[in-house]
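=== RUN LOG ===
request id: a7f3
mode: sequence -> structure
chains: 1
length: 206
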Amino acid sequence: MCIRKIFFLTTFLFFFLETSPYALDKNISLELHNADLSETVRLIAKSLSISVMISPSVNGVATLHLHDAMPEQVFDLLLASHGLAKWRMGNVWFIAPRDELIKRKLEEQKWQTVRDESSPLLTHFWQIHYAKAEEVASLLQDEHASLLSKRGHARFDARTNILYIQDIGEKMENVSRLIKYLDVPVKQIVVEARLLSVDNDFEREL
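=== RESULT ===
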């Protein structure tokens, strides 16, 4: 239970401290009338210092009247107002109509499923030193969610505190990183509160 709390707290902190996907920049003022939509997207993306790849199916024109506007908001509103969406791949944003992105993501999910089902299964044992193998196994796979593939399995031996994982290589790398992160000593800080209110007369007697 303790390691599960630490895991979710750490996840929350990473989420809270995560920086914006856009580079922070100054506000912009811009006047455009019937400008090419693709070129307008590239222009706003340049002000955000982000790399974009625009689908050939993106067409149309855009009219902008901006004064001291936040570029990240302009970028998102520009896409939304023309039925476009963005898909981040590494440090590049792919810009395309929403329907096209949905289709591409569905195709990628199908391809990922095929890869997972055809990849060979690997087996690895981890000797857990500081955490409990049972708790680590439950983080990796339980009845509600799993960090493993559909073919993956997480087992443990409570007597030796050994964790046994069988899964494809791609997932095994993620498991290894997670175990390395979780299997560390937990520093416990004990704060002692002492009552130091002493009567002045008694203090003088000492």
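=== NOTES ===
The longest strand covers residues 28-36.
Residues 98-118 form the longest helix (21 residues).
=== END ===
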